[in-house]
Amino acid sequence: MLESSLEFLRCVCCGSKLEQTVFKSDKEIVEGILECKKCNAKYPIIEKIPILWNDFSNYLSFRKKLGGKIYHIIENSTLKQFCKTALLKNDQIGDDRTALEERWSNIYQKSKSSKFYSYIKKNLDPVKKSNLVLEYGCSIGIMTSFLAKSHKTVFGIDRSFTALRFAKKSYKDNLDYVVADFLSPVFGKQFFDLVLALNVLELVEPKELLQHISKQISNGLVIISDPYDFDRGIHSVKNPLDEKSLRMNLEKLGFKITSKTKTPMHIPWNLKLGPRTMLNYDVDLVICKK
Ligand SMILES: C[S@@+](CC[C@H](N)C(=O)[O-])C[C@H]1O[C@@H](n2cnc3c(N)ncnc32)[C@H](O)[C@@H]1O
Ligand SMILES: [Zn+2]
């Protein structure tokens, strides 16, 4: 975690500023703890990644294998103890997500050259240099690292520690990543100039995400893409959106949709699942302004 990120991050339990204790650093903080003096919440920084989850033992409850791995990686004894306490407290509630998150991180690695990403990059070229940019569900950082080439400060959030480990492999002094839930107040009341949310509407209640994003933009641009692949059995969201209702909801929130994306778009997004398996989506894109 970059030392400079502290100014932007907030306690996800109470919204207060955080204080940091650094155990190990080189160009950035490798191991440390972020602490909220108001509600006493503590958040670990492990392998340069701050985990701003309201309950770390709950985060590890769904990632027992990951918990074991990071326990062995951590060098500092205080941080190791913090991790051990969380692991001992945890009661696995659902399936372990470790293997799934590893698998998807590998799929994104192999799919970096999908035309989808170059299409979005081309659409980002004319966007004026922004001070503060946020990408929701950045995964391994394909777009976030691109954005950091031309914008001042860029953040990516994702709940997958494994994906962010890939993302953190390349260092940039204006780019940082946080493990956090989309809807948590990880940036408090901070406004952003540019927000991206690519292909995430199936994974969170979409209207809630749009409202959350809307509160973070007073004068800026939002780029949303989605394949509307909402049929996910018990994991399906309650209120899916489609081409029309996505645009309608954005307009209701005060966004103006750019003329180019007023009508539904069809962009191929190809994910390489295995040597002989492709997942081919047809993705819609909306670019809007407030
Ligand atoms: C379908 S992938 C899309 C990745 C990337 N945006 C792209 O288009 O290539 C969705 C990403 O969102 C993350 N994610 C899903 N639900 C989340 C949540 N509630 N909070 C934070 N991250 C979440 C997943 O870990 C995953 O990396
Ligand atoms: Zn707090």
- Average residue-wise pLDDT: 96
How many domains make up the coordinates? 2
> Which structural category do the helix and sheet elements fall into?
alpha/beta
Please write the string of helix (H) and strand (E) elements.
EEEEHHHHHEHEHEEHEHEEE
- Give Rg in angstroms: 19 Å
What is the percent of helical residues? 25-40%
Which CATH class of the largest domain?
Answer: Alpha Beta
Instruction: Tell me the overall shape.
Output: globular
- CATH homologous superfamily grouping of the largest domain: Vaccinia Virus protein VP39
- Distance, first to last CA: 30 Å
What hetero molecules are bound to the protein chains?
S-adenosylmethionine, zinc ion
Described by strand count, sense and barrel closure, the largest sheet is: 8 strands, mixed
As for the CATH topology of the largest domain, it is Rossmann fold
What is the CATH architecture assignment of the largest domain?
3-Layer(aba) Sandwich
- DSSP helix count? 9
- How large is the share of residues in beta strands? 15-25%
How would you sum up this structure, described in words?
The radius of gyration is 19 Å and the shape is globular. The longest helix has 13 residues, at 77-89. The protein has 290 residues and is of the alpha/beta class. The strands form 2 sheets. Strands 5, 6, 7, 8, 9, 10, 11 and 12 form an 8-stranded mixed beta sheet that branches. The mean pLDDT is 96. The protein folds into 2 domains: 3-96, no CATH class; 101-289, Vaccinia Virus protein VP39 (Rossmann fold, 3-Layer(aba) Sandwich). It has helices at 56-61, 64-73, 77-89, 98-110, 115-124, 142-150, 161-167, 206-215, 243-252; strands at 19-25, 29-35, 42-46, 49-50, 132-136, 153-158, 175-179, 194-198, 221-226, 256-257, 267-274, 277-289. α2 packs antiparallel against α3 (77-89). It contains 9 helices and 12 strands. Bound molecules: S-adenosylmethionine and zinc ion. S-adenosylmethionine is lined by residues 108, 137, 139, 142, 158-160, 163, 181-182, 198-200, 203-204.
